[in-house]
Amino acid sequence: EDGLWQPITDPRIRAVMPMAGEGWWLFGERGLAAVDRTVLMFVGTEDGLYAENALIFEHLGSADKALISLVGPDHIEMLIEARMNARMRHFATAFFGTHLQGRPELAYYYSEEFVALHDDLAWGVHKGE
Q: Which among 31, 23, 25 is positioned nearest to 6, based on CA atoms?
């Protein structure tokens, strides 16, 4: 009745790492504001949906959210290049290890401090040079 979809959730979900962040048009600002789970987004800056991913990230309601921008690749490169796959596995392992396995020592490996050590990564929405 209020124009929003019914909540898409389950109490067992404690952390989310969307791999194909899409849906601004589906959820909108109000729907994304309702997100209350820990979120890690990881996206290539040349992905055709990068601007939409940034918009989604900025409107997520979760107090515990992070966006890691991989500077350069597009969506397909992230899927097919071994180095990109290794990066995604690294961040997924650190993120879910922290939030699902209760291993806080892994949080550093998907932190702003860790990302700053890599020239091809940017913390948050990448504004370019």
A: 31
Residue at 26: amino acid letter? L
Which segments of the chain are extended strands (E)? Answer: 15-16, 38-44, 65-70, 121-123
Q: Taking the complete model, does pTM exceed 0.90, yes or no? A: no
Q: In 3D, which of 34, 31, 29, 24 has the Cα closest to residue 5?
A: 31
Residue whose pair of structure tokens reads 């180095």 in the numeric block: 83
Strand partners, 70: 44, 121
Q: Helix or strand or coil: residue 70?
A: strand
69 by Cβ neighbours in 10 Å (0-12 / 13-18 / 19+) ranks as buried
Token code pair at residue 35: 């997100």
Mean pLDDT of successive 10-residue stretches along the chain, which has 129 residues: 71 88 82 92 91 94 95 88 91 97 97 96 87
Predicted local distance difference test score (pLDDT) of residue 1: 61
